């Protein structure tokens, strides 16, 4: 029985690590030793204001503490939609999403910054150089986004009428890439299958969530 309890405790440490550090499959951090994962879990819970000090005193070898770990997991689940957040962070991008740059003002000279008193001597030339470098990076970002939008528009235009679903009218970037590289498409399908498995797991959790809370 002690071996089974140890296995459960180790699994709970790993589950908490996965919840607190959502990582894509194959990420090097996901294969960290249990002791390292336990220390990271303790640190993350402390930074989020977890109130129970008993968890910080647990051994990190996975030998005991399943009750405290369950309480910590319940605390995280009660604070917010943890499964949905994990799904969103691990979602497979389809390639048609574009983030809108909200800092165009940095790409232009704009008005001078307000004067602020500094505690020590300030190298004004260095500050001006940093601001110029920042504006240059933002111009590069805006230019890159404009180029991506133009390429995305071309893909949608050239594939118009190719989709089996007439309501969509054109292929997505991912669908066009699958036609260009069938082997890469097979890898994408496997990735989508894993995403479907995660979705099914969340649905199964929602069906049994009330039982979990009653048991807790």
Topology (elements, then pairings):
Elements: H1 2-20, H2 34-47, H3 66-79, H4 82-89, H5 124-158, H6 173-180, H7 182-215
Helix pairs in contact: 1-2, 1-3, 6-7
Descriptive account of the structure:
Helices cover 61% and strands 0% of the residues. The protein has 216 residues and is an all-alpha fold. The protein has a domain of 79 residues. The longest helix has 35 residues.
* Whole-number mean pLDDT: 80
Helix percent band: 55-70%
SSE run? HHHHHHH
- Intertermini distance: 21 Å
Going by helix content, strand content and strand pairing, the class is mainly alpha
Instruction: List low-confidence stretches.
Output: 110-114
What is the number of E strands? 0
Largest sheet: none
Q: Which overall shape is indicated by the principal axes computed on the Cα atoms?
A: flat
Q: Can you count the helices?
A: 7
Strand content: under 5%
Structural Rg? 25 Å
In short:
The protein has a domain at 1-79. 61% of the residues lie in helices and 0% in strands.
Keywords summarizing the entry:
7 helices; 0% strand; mainly alpha; flat; 61% helix; 216 residues
